[in-house]
């Protein structure tokens, strides 16, 4: 606004000087003919018209360059700005701008020049984007490491469950011959199942935390879906084991 006011004031002074030049150069006689007056006015009209046209062209080009700077800087950050041409004919907004100019610059001699924003150059933008990319890559690597840890824990729990099922089957085969040993083994098996259940609960809790973290940072990956499928199968195996155990205890 201050820049536009300054340019407008300079152009108005130029137009004033056109009239003063006419007065000083042509208005030297006391009387003029009609043709002389018409000639002076035509010449003045050409000069004033040229000054006004120059100002309008400069204003339009200046606005275009200003918008170009803003849009260029926005595109470097992957922003897409849009304009509403209809707002340029909004009389209410025009009046608000005029009121702002009137109150803000009513005493132009006391206006202090405010610091301007320096445009971002290509090097600064590239450095900023590179830092952000490096930070996101580091977070991605950390999450991948945590995911691998969760997968290892899940596979360990699955191995324990498989061992428990194998032990149960072996005990069922020798049930009639080793009843006393089976009772002790049954307690051990129950303890193993309880321990495996506790381990599974801890793994599920850790996986839930990892899932929330990954949902905020990345879209669903194949490793995540595989891990979820493993947990689903594990739960199905546990349910199946419990059903077999209940059936066995009922037979016993």
Short description:
With 252 residues, the chain is an all-alpha fold. It has helices at 2-26, 34-76, 91-104, 122-173, 179-217, 222-251.
Keywords:
Methane Monooxygenase Hydroxylase, Chain G, domain 1, single chain, mainly alpha, 6 helices, 2 domains, 252 residues
Protein model, in words:
It is found in: Cytoplasm. The chain has 6 helices and no strands. The chain has about 250 residues and is mainly α. Helices cover about 80% and strands about 0% of the residues. The chain starts with a helix and ends with a helix. The chain folds into 2 domains: about 110 residues, no CATH class; about 130 residues, Up-down Bundle (Methane Monooxygenase Hydroxylase, Chain G, domain 1). The model has no long low-confidence stretch (mean pLDDT about 80).
């Amino acid at each position: 606004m201050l820049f536009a006011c300054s340019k407008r004031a300079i152009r108005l002074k130029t137009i004033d000087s056109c009239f003063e030049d006419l007065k000083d150069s042509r208005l030297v006689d006391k009387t003029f003919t009609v043709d002389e007056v018409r000639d002076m006015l035509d010449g003045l009209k050409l000069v004033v018209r040229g000054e006004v046209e120059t100002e309008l062209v400069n204003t339009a080009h200046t606005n275009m360059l200003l918008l170009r700077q803003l849009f260029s800087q926005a595109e470097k950050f992957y922003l897409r700005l849009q304009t509403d041409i209809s707002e340029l004919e909004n009389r209410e907004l025009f009046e608000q701008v005029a009121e702002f100019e009137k109150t803000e610059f009513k005493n132009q001699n006391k206006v202090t020049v405010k610091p301007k924003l320096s445009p971002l150059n290509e090097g600064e933008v590239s450095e900023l984007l590179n830092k952000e990319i490096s930070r996101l890559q580091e977070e991605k690597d950390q999450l991948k490491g945590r995911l691998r840890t969760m997968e290892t824990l899940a596979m360990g729990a699955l191995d324990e469950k498989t061992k428990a099922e194998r032990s149960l089957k072996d005990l069922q085969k020798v049930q009639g011959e080793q009843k006393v040993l089976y009772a002790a083994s049954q307690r051990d098996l129950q303890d193993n199942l309880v321990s495996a259940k506790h381990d599974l609960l801890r793994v599920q809790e850790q996986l839930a935390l990892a899932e929330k973290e990954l949902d905020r940072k990345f879209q669903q990956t194949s490793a995540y879906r595989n891990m979820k499928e493993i947990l689903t199968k594990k739960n199905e195996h546990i349910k199946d084991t419990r059903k077999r155990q209940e059936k066995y205890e009922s037979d016993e």
